[in-house]
Amino acid sequence: MAKVLCVLYDDPVDGYPKTYARDDLPHLDGYPGGQTLPTPAGTDFTPGHLLGSVSGELGLRKYLEERGHTLVVTSDKEGENSEFDRELVDADIVISQPFWPAYLTPERFAKAEKLKIAITAGIGSDHVDLDSAIERGVTVAEVTYCNSISVAEHVVMMILGLVRDYIPAYEWVKKGGWNIADVVKRSYDLEGMHVGTVAAGRIGLAVLRRLAPFDVHLHYTDRHRLPKEIEESLNLTWHDSTADMAPVCDVITINAPLHPETEGMFDDKLISTMKRGAYLINTARAKIADRDAIVRALESGQLAGYAGDVWYPQPAPADHPWRTMPHHGMTPHMSGSSLSAQARYAAGTREILESFFAGTPIRDEYLIVDGGGLAGTGAHSYSTNK
Ligand code: NDP
Predict the structure, then answer these.
(1) b/e per residue, 316-350, with b = 16+ CB within 10 A?
(2) Is 329 a domain residue?
């Protein structure tokens, strides 16, 4: 029987919800491109309920305990005396989320001698040291596509929020003001701007598709070029590097995984090549941007705005400079954890567990590391230090 250690974010400060804003979720037939939604044999939760926090338990307790497994759920993940560290020593399975990542460092891998699989209940497994997983034969799997569209919607919202200066306008209303000039002095139309994405995978392409009707000029860079029909239908300009794309864009959105190729990509040097007053939206991973270079660029006016929901570390400390830098539109890491997304990643986590316990193959598209190497989606989208 397995011990499953699940790290989730805390419940709301006013307690686990008893009621919800809406009664149901829209039905989806599948993901764009034809991938099917998660197909577990069953689920024990109500779609639309809060599953991603500690009391929601990803809806897994009944399923696991009925089969004799042990489920430990905690939000306490920092430091050697955390519940996560204490429980890790004999855990067979770790489930964690990018929103509240239980960082599986080489040191923690060394302690977790029984660990067989690390499941990301979401997308983005950079909180797991992939080199250690490869060395130790630990499988890493994530619920590919579960929240890609959720993030794409958030990116579009953040682009519009920054360009039109929505957040300061909203704040004036809350303060009782009617300060039109104060907000319109930084408010522009998106129409006609050049918008580029670093990576046109599931999220990046969905952002491009959603922005096309805004009559903007669309750009992208990616390691693999999109099919010609897609480039033509969206009127995309392809660039063979981020360095080539950066100087021509008014808005850049980052949609690549964090891995050795992308870490620290948006540093002082790259940002200095962008148009003065460009906007940068990063919902991918904080470390793709140099933290202090972003602050400097906002203070100098080189960037007109920065928004995103990814920080390092997470949760971000109270004195993280991105909380107080000018012209930002940051949120906590939430874009991929809407109630809609939670239903999909809870079901996908259950599907991965069912495959793991049955000894049947985990869907290739869910695999990041398997059999001692990058596998599935991991082989396509990630690189390692080795
Ligand atoms: P995909 O795997 O579908 O797409 C990632 C794309 O990044 C691939 O097309 C890949 O290229 C490309 N890529 C990798 N390295 C580079 C590089 N050096 N330069 C340019 N492109 C590169 O993933 P998703 O679109 O679903 O997700 C992307 C990332 O977004 C995740 O890894 C995660 O970090 C983040 N994310 C954030 C969430 C949030 O809540 N904020 C939720 C979900 C994801 P190719 O495949 O052609 O090699």
Answers:
(1) beeebebeebebbbbeebebbbbbbbbbbbbbbbb
(2) no
Mean pLDDT in residue range 313-324:
96
Which residue range is the domain that position 363 belongs to? 3-145+337-376
* Residue 223 placed within a domain: yes
pLDDT at position 242 = 98
- What pLDDT sits at residue 386? 63
CA terminus-to-terminus distance, the chain: 34
CATH of the domain at 282: 3.40.50.720
Pocket test for ligand 1, best of 100, 143, 145, 222 (most atoms within 8 A of CB): 222
Atom of ligand 1 nearest to the CA of 261: 18
**Mean pLDDT across the stretch 198-225?**
97
Which amino acid would we find at residue 226?
L
Residues 176 and 94 in one domain: no
CA of 68 to the centre of ligand 1 (A): 37
Q: How far is the CA of 27 from the centre of ligand 1 (A)?
A: 26
Ligand 1 centroid to residue 175 C-alpha, Å: 39
Counting the structural domains of the chain, the total is 2
